[in-house]
Amino acid sequence: MRARPRLLKWAAPLALAAAWTWTMAAPARAGVAVIYDGAYQRNVELYSAKDHRYLSARDAGKIYKGQIYWYPLSGQVHLKLGPRPIRFSAGSKEVMLGNKAVLLQRPVLTRADQAYIPFEFFLSEDFARHMGIRTDFDAEAGVLRIGKDDDSDFLRYFSYPDKTRIVLEFDAPVPEPSSQRRGDRLEISIPKAVAAGGKKIGIDDERVEEISLSQQKKGMLLSARLKDAAAEWKVSRFDDPDRLVLDVFGSSAAAAEKSPLATVPEAGAEKTPQAPAPTHAAQRARRKIVVDPGHGGKDGGAQGLRRSVEKNINLLVGKQLVELLRQEKAY
């Protein structure tokens, strides 16, 4: 008979703790559409507590295509996304990204068998660098966009009648490069530079078949597979923005342009070399496109089950279409 009062003695604190975690974790919910690599994936709910958003660890595992391990007794949450583990502790602001400790703005919350992670963590640079995945959130449209964390425009090329121009952009002054030819490959070594990951682009014009970017022990390697055995080249560095420019000339144009390694232009010189005029066909193919998302003002259009408004979705799609058209360099 004496055991019963002991149970009652502990029941009140446990009930209060359970009520606190419940109130903190999920008093309000908001539906969000998840777009992964440009394709709709699923809808998830963001939980709001004291005007701060949280994402459940279970949903995080689903949308980032990983595995979630929640240990209620120890309060540990392990999120394994591929080979990159992330470890949280309930009630703590510290998160382990592999062996690196990072502080959250708010602690991880728990409720029953669920753990809730501060949503801004998934939008942070620490998460993006650790995972190689970029997450952007449009709160007005209720859309969460997830994609690989690489700027697809940092390496690009332009084909002209007399040469192929390859442009590699940097976020700092370009180190002094060196160039050499190995068989049908032209290799440009940039010391102390770091490639975000392997990248290969097919060109297949008259002079260059493809270009690739890779990381070597001493720096970055830009490689171009050449079609013309007599092709020559010129490497230049420029600033504002910092970039390396590789021009590959066909044998007919090699006499006009030699292939020494160019250095940074002297003071007073033009920062950007004069690009050859595009061909008449390229000029004729360029078009102006006007994107009109539709709806707006008083007429917001249809409203979805999760209170998403048509005008917001239209505007989001319109902006993405504009970015895609700009990347084509033909509009």
SSE diagram, text form:
Elements: H1 3-25, E1 28-36, E2 39-49, E3 52-56, H2 57-63, E4 67-71, E5 76-81, E6 84-89, E7 94-97, E8 100-103, E9 109-111, E10 114-118, H3 125-131, E11 133-138, E12 143-148, E13 155-159, E14 163-169, E15 178-182, E16 185-191, E17 199-202, E18 208-216, E19 219-226, E20 232-238, E21 243-249, H4 280-285, H5 310-328
Parallel strand pairs: 1-12
Antiparallel strand pairs: 1-2, 2-3, 3-10, 4-5, 5-6, 6-7, 7-8, 9-10, 11-12, 13-14, 14-21, 15-16, 16-19, 17-18, 18-19, 20-21
Brief descriptors of the model:
331 residues, alpha+beta, 7-stranded mixed β-sheet, 21 strands, flat, disordered N terminus
- Structural class given helices, strands, pairing? alpha+beta
Task: Note poorly predicted spans.
Answer: 1-27, 254-272, 277-284
Number of helices: 5
Percent range for β-strand residues: 35-45%
What would you report as the Rg, rounded to the nearest angstrom?
27 Å
Which sequence of strands runs across the widest sheet? 9-10-3-2-1-12-11
**Helix content percent band:** 10-25%
In total, the number of strands is 21
Query: In sequence order, what are the helices and strands, one letter per element?
Result: HEEEHEEEEEEEHEEEEEEEEEEEHH
- Global shape: flat
**End-to-end Cα distance:** 84 Å
Query: What is the arithmetic mean of pLDDT?
Result: 77
Largest sheet: 7 strands, mixed
